[in-house]
Amino acid sequence: MIRVEDLCYNYNAKSKSSISALKNINFTLKNSTIMGIIGKTGSGKSTLAQLLCGLLSPTHGKIFLNEKEIIKDFKNTKEICFNVTMAFQYPENQLFEKTVYDEIAFGPRNKGISESKIKDIVFEVIKFTNISENMLKCSPIFLSGGEKRKCAIASVMALKSKVLILDEPTAGLDCKSKSQLMNSIFEYHRKEKNILIIISHNMEETARICDKVLVLDEGIQLMFDSPVKVFKNYQKLEKLNLDVPQTSQIMRYINNEYPINTDIMFPKEAEEEILKILNSKGVER
Amino acid sequence: MNNFEFCKYFSGNSIVHKLDARIKIISSLIFFILTFSSNNIISLSIIAISISIIAVVSEVPLIKYIKSFKSVLIISVITAFINLFFEAETNLVCLGELSVSLSGLKSSIFLFFRLFILVFISSITMFTTSVQEISLAFENLLSPLGYLGINIQEIAITITLSLRFIPVLFEETYKIINAQKVRGAHFDSKNVIKKIRAFCNIFVPLFIFSFKRAESIAIAMESRCYDVSKKRTSLKNMELSHRDAISIIFLLIIFTGVIICNKMKIF
Ligand SMILES: Nc1ncnc2c1ncn2[C@@H]1O[C@H](COP(=O)(O)OP(=O)(O)OP(=O)(O)O)[C@@H](O)[C@H]1O
Ligand SMILES: [Mg+2]
């Protein structure tokens, strides 16, 4: 369980050029849930992620992981990262090992796991991220952008921490890889039953897999609720330059002309709903 | 890593800021030479005092200077410490094979202060001179080399770019460290070997990043038709003023003062 209490963070807190990046964030996440963080550029999403990992220490407020306070109740950053870890926004420039295998094994090795077990872990996570086995011997530097991304995500998955934070994991990937990667992340979560926190600008993805959505605006927590309830507030979201899933937009347009359930966010459900209405009107398939 | 204050320009409107960048660079060089040629306490204090006066006049907050001292403190201590043992004369203390002599002690204390003064001088110059001014000044100072067929523009743009990218490089280093911290790298490990290993892992991606960055900047500049061989004009022309003349006189006084003191036989 993660509990965040009254969390504030200022960059350069002591100097005059202090920037307040987060103000009074409060939320609680139960075990094995997926949380999405949305908000426009510069709203403090990445800052929040780094605070949760203990890379930044809060200016004010506290973060608890299973009743242990992050930073204070842990020995060092190493111990924190075995509990909470993250993949950074654009992680491509941060690969450093000689081969993809070593890159993925870096975390488990630091954890002190035996080589034979590490091998199992590596082969497990590359299955989740669709990395082919013969890529393991390549140098990560010469992979394509998307392959590097997968490699970076696989390497944090290999840590098997209780909380995994992914900062815009699918930004800049093509449409199919996006949904593939998202599905594999979801698979991984189902198997590990960890807490997954995903920062994303893709509302479809967020609506599809998240149990809870946190909306940030200029460092202020606007909403923290289930996706259905959050995306119902489309007027608020549109004011923040955020979209809602396209299906729910269509349902809203239809609702202007004809009463229909506007809580629907996915094409499949929308199809069923529309067919139901058509059937009730006696229209044949 | 975040408080890298060594090269950051601190905008201001003091006399030191307004001085011609060429004068500042030349005076720093002269001060460097003076610092290393000074061989007694009086000449070193003359330099230290005059530098301190310049620092006060520069209106840059003291904390900035202290931060830049902090960044070289360890190096200075180590250098001074090693220097302790390399002076063969009457010994004060013996540590097995190693022995510390009076002149060794003296020279290492001097070395320590010299390093500090060097950092002080370069900090003043960097804090009060913008990157543009520095590169323009270098271009100006090196222009005689043009007659030897060396392309000055090229050197100037190299200087500008490298100065500009120091902070970027530090930011990138910080990011890489963070990325490895979340995967359990041992930066806070007490074991020195482990620590060195961990830092080696930073340099690999950093080098790759720098080469890639350099290449993309070159391409970006070329795609906007940048041509080094063209003669360029600049927004501000460098002209010496009465302020610069006064500062040259000031410099000459210190210069002779230090030279005279060096001739004296004091500690
Ligand atoms: N290292 C830093 N130093 C100072 N200010 C920073 C730093 N990093 C971020 N900020 C500021 O904090 C605010 C929040 O930044 P953050 O990176 O958390 O935004 P974000 O929500 O992740 O944006 P994006 O969607 O573009 O990734 C921004 O206003 C930014 O200018
Ligand atoms: Mg971000």
Give a concise summary.
The complex is a heterodimer of chains A (285) and B (267). Chain A has 285 residues and is of the alpha/beta class.
What does this structure look like?
The complex is a heterodimer of chains A (285) and B (267). Chain A has helices at 45-52, 77-83, 100-111, 115-128, 145-157, 175-192, 203-209, 227-232, 234-239, 246-257, 267-280, and strands at residues 2-11, 19-29, 34-38, 60-65, 68-69, 84-87, 163-167, 195-199, 212-217, 220-225. Chain A is of the alpha/beta class. Chain A folds into two domains: 2-244, P-loop containing nucleotide triphosphate hydrolases (Rossmann fold); 245-285, no CATH class. In chain A, the strands form two sheets. In chain A, strands 6-7-8-3-9-10 form a six-stranded mixed beta sheet, with helices on both faces. In chain A, strands 2-1-4-5 form a four-stranded antiparallel beta sheet, covered by helices on one side. In chain A, strand 7 (163-167), helix 6 (175-192) and strand 8 form a beta-alpha-beta unit. In chain A, helix 3 packs across helix 4 (115-128), helix 3 runs parallel beside helix 5 and helix 4 crosses helix 5 (145-157). With 267 residues, chain B is mainly alpha-helical. Helices cover 68% and strands 3% of the residues of chain B. Chain B has helices spanning 15-18, 21-37, 41-57, 62-83, 102-128, 131-141, 152-181, 192-223, 242-263; strands spanning 91-95, 98-101. Chain B has a two-stranded antiparallel sheet. In chain B, strand 1 and strand 2 form a beta hairpin. In chain B, helix 2 (21-37) runs antiparallel to helix 5, helix 3 runs parallel beside helix 5 and helix 4 (62-83) packs antiparallel against helix 5. The structure holds adenosine-5'-triphosphate and magnesium ion (MG).
